[in-house]
Specification:
By secondary structure, the protein is of the alpha+beta class. The protein contains four helices and seven strands. A hairpin with a 5-residue loop joins strand 5 and strand 6. The relative contact order is 0.19. The C terminus is likely disordered.
Length: 175
Protein backbone atom coordinates (compact mmCIF):
# COMPACT_ATOMS: atom_id res chain seq x y z
CA UNK A 1 0.00 0.00 0.00
CA UNK A 2 1.36 3.42 -0.96
CA UNK A 3 0.81 5.67 2.05
CA UNK A 4 2.34 9.13 2.22
CA UNK A 5 1.70 12.21 4.33
CA UNK A 6 2.52 15.90 4.22
CA UNK A 7 2.02 18.79 6.58
CA UNK A 8 0.32 21.60 4.67
CA UNK A 9 0.61 25.10 6.13
CA UNK A 10 -3.07 25.87 5.71
CA UNK A 11 -6.16 24.97 7.69
CA UNK A 12 -7.97 21.67 7.09
CA UNK A 13 -10.90 23.79 5.78
CA UNK A 14 -8.64 25.41 3.15
CA UNK A 15 -7.35 22.00 2.05
CA UNK A 16 -10.87 20.58 1.95
CA UNK A 17 -12.03 23.49 -0.22
CA UNK A 18 -9.52 22.48 -2.89
CA UNK A 19 -10.39 18.76 -2.65
CA UNK A 20 -14.10 19.57 -2.79
CA UNK A 21 -13.77 21.40 -6.11
CA UNK A 22 -13.99 18.76 -8.85
CA UNK A 23 -12.85 21.25 -11.47
CA UNK A 24 -9.48 21.60 -9.67
CA UNK A 25 -8.61 17.87 -9.60
CA UNK A 26 -6.20 18.29 -12.53
CA UNK A 27 -4.33 21.04 -10.68
CA UNK A 28 -3.02 18.69 -8.00
CA UNK A 29 -3.37 15.11 -9.30
CA UNK A 30 -0.20 14.01 -11.10
CA UNK A 31 -0.76 12.94 -14.69
CA UNK A 32 -4.17 14.55 -15.04
CA UNK A 33 -4.42 17.30 -17.64
CA UNK A 34 -8.14 18.18 -17.40
CA UNK A 35 -11.07 17.40 -15.12
CA UNK A 36 -14.73 18.28 -14.76
CA UNK A 37 -17.64 17.01 -12.68
CA UNK A 38 -19.98 14.76 -14.69
CA UNK A 39 -22.35 13.20 -12.19
CA UNK A 40 -23.74 14.08 -8.78
CA UNK A 41 -22.52 16.83 -6.48
CA UNK A 42 -18.76 16.51 -5.95
CA UNK A 43 -17.47 15.36 -3.46
CA UNK A 44 -20.61 13.60 -2.22
CA UNK A 45 -20.83 9.80 -2.39
CA UNK A 46 -21.35 8.45 -5.95
CA UNK A 47 -20.48 11.79 -7.58
CA UNK A 48 -17.99 11.48 -10.43
CA UNK A 49 -15.53 13.60 -12.31
CA UNK A 50 -14.22 12.97 -15.79
CA UNK A 51 -10.49 13.38 -16.19
CA UNK A 52 -8.01 13.26 -19.01
CA UNK A 53 -4.44 11.96 -18.98
CA UNK A 54 -2.02 12.93 -21.75
CA UNK A 55 0.85 10.64 -22.68
CA UNK A 56 2.52 12.48 -25.53
CA UNK A 57 0.00 12.59 -28.38
CA UNK A 58 -2.23 9.98 -26.68
CA UNK A 59 -5.13 11.19 -24.56
CA UNK A 60 -6.91 8.84 -22.19
CA UNK A 61 -10.16 9.74 -20.49
CA UNK A 62 -11.60 8.05 -17.41
CA UNK A 63 -13.68 8.74 -14.32
CA UNK A 64 -13.04 9.05 -10.63
CA UNK A 65 -15.99 8.23 -8.37
CA UNK A 66 -16.47 9.26 -4.73
CA UNK A 67 -17.02 6.08 -2.71
CA UNK A 68 -16.99 7.66 0.75
CA UNK A 69 -17.02 11.24 2.00
CA UNK A 70 -16.78 12.63 5.53
CA UNK A 71 -16.96 16.33 4.79
CA UNK A 72 -13.87 18.18 5.87
CA UNK A 73 -11.92 15.11 7.02
CA UNK A 74 -11.96 12.16 4.63
CA UNK A 75 -12.44 11.51 0.92
CA UNK A 76 -12.25 8.03 -0.61
CA UNK A 77 -12.14 7.76 -4.38
CA UNK A 78 -12.12 4.98 -6.95
CA UNK A 79 -10.11 6.05 -9.98
CA UNK A 80 -10.63 4.15 -13.21
CA UNK A 81 -7.60 3.50 -15.40
CA UNK A 82 -9.24 1.84 -18.40
CA UNK A 83 -8.01 -1.68 -19.14
CA UNK A 84 -5.57 -1.48 -16.20
CA UNK A 85 -8.41 -1.50 -13.66
CA UNK A 86 -9.16 0.77 -10.73
CA UNK A 87 -7.40 2.16 -7.70
CA UNK A 88 -8.67 3.18 -4.29
CA UNK A 89 -7.40 6.55 -3.09
CA UNK A 90 -8.16 7.61 0.48
CA UNK A 91 -7.31 11.16 1.54
CA UNK A 92 -7.50 12.01 5.21
CA UNK A 93 -7.20 15.50 6.69
CA UNK A 94 -6.13 15.95 10.31
CA UNK A 95 -5.83 19.27 12.13
CA UNK A 96 -2.21 19.75 13.20
CA UNK A 97 -1.99 22.93 15.22
CA UNK A 98 -2.91 25.69 12.76
CA UNK A 99 -2.04 23.43 9.84
CA UNK A 100 -3.34 20.28 8.16
CA UNK A 101 -1.73 16.85 8.05
CA UNK A 102 -2.80 15.19 4.79
CA UNK A 103 -2.47 11.40 4.52
CA UNK A 104 -2.89 9.68 1.15
CA UNK A 105 -3.37 5.92 0.94
CA UNK A 106 -3.61 4.44 -2.56
CA UNK A 107 -3.60 0.89 -3.82
CA UNK A 108 -4.92 -1.14 -6.77
CA UNK A 109 -8.48 -2.30 -6.30
CA UNK A 110 -9.63 -4.12 -9.45
CA UNK A 111 -8.07 -5.32 -12.69
CA UNK A 112 -4.63 -6.31 -13.92
CA UNK A 113 -2.84 -3.43 -12.18
CA UNK A 114 -3.19 -5.42 -8.95
CA UNK A 115 -0.87 -8.10 -10.35
CA UNK A 116 1.73 -5.42 -11.11
CA UNK A 117 1.69 -4.23 -7.52
CA UNK A 118 5.16 -4.93 -6.13
CA UNK A 119 7.98 -3.00 -4.46
CA UNK A 120 8.93 -1.27 -7.73
CA UNK A 121 5.35 -0.17 -8.31
CA UNK A 122 5.18 0.96 -4.69
CA UNK A 123 8.29 3.14 -5.17
CA UNK A 124 6.73 4.80 -8.23
CA UNK A 125 3.54 5.47 -6.27
CA UNK A 126 5.57 7.10 -3.48
CA UNK A 127 7.19 9.46 -6.02
CA UNK A 128 3.79 10.25 -7.53
CA UNK A 129 2.30 10.97 -4.10
CA UNK A 130 5.21 13.18 -3.09
CA UNK A 131 4.64 15.31 -6.21
CA UNK A 132 0.85 15.25 -5.80
CA UNK A 133 1.02 16.38 -2.16
CA UNK A 134 3.53 19.10 -3.07
CA UNK A 135 1.10 20.43 -5.70
CA UNK A 136 -1.79 20.30 -3.23
CA UNK A 137 0.32 22.12 -0.63
CA UNK A 138 1.29 24.86 -3.11
CA UNK A 139 -2.36 25.46 -4.03
CA UNK A 140 -3.65 25.47 -0.46
CA UNK A 141 -0.80 27.49 1.03
CA UNK A 142 -0.97 30.06 -1.77
CA UNK A 143 -4.72 30.50 -1.28
CA UNK A 144 -4.33 30.67 2.51
CA UNK A 145 -1.64 33.34 2.07
CA UNK A 146 -3.88 35.31 -0.31
CA UNK A 147 -6.77 35.09 2.16
CA UNK A 148 -4.56 36.36 5.02
CA UNK A 149 -3.36 39.34 2.98
CA UNK A 150 -6.86 40.46 1.89
CA UNK A 151 -8.85 42.20 4.66
CA UNK A 152 -12.22 40.65 5.46
CA UNK A 153 -15.10 41.84 3.34
CA UNK A 154 -12.89 43.12 0.53
CA UNK A 155 -11.81 41.64 -2.73
CA UNK A 156 -8.59 43.31 -3.75
CA UNK A 157 -7.77 43.26 -7.44
CA UNK A 158 -4.52 41.51 -8.31
CA UNK A 159 -1.66 43.95 -7.80
CA UNK A 160 -3.91 46.57 -6.17
CA UNK A 161 -2.66 48.16 -2.93
CA UNK A 162 -4.53 47.13 0.18
CA UNK A 163 -5.62 49.88 2.57
CA UNK A 164 -4.62 49.37 6.21
CA UNK A 165 -7.34 47.97 8.44
CA UNK A 166 -9.24 50.48 10.57
CA UNK A 167 -8.16 50.14 14.18
CA UNK A 168 -11.25 51.81 15.66
CA UNK A 169 -14.04 49.55 16.82
CA UNK A 170 -16.73 51.91 15.46
CA UNK A 171 -15.16 51.91 11.98
CA UNK A 172 -15.01 55.69 11.69
CA UNK A 173 -11.22 55.89 11.72
CA UNK A 174 -11.50 59.12 13.75
CA UNK A 175 -9.66 59.63 17.01
Amino acid sequence: MAVRHRLIHASPRAVWNVLADGTRYAEWVVGTSRSEPVRGRWPHTDAAIWYQVRLGPVRLANETVVRHCEEGTRLELEAEAGVLGTARIAIELRPWGDHCLVIVDEHPLQGPVGRLHNLGFEALMQLRHRTMLARLARLCESEASDARSTPRGTAAAPGAPVAPADSRADGTGRA
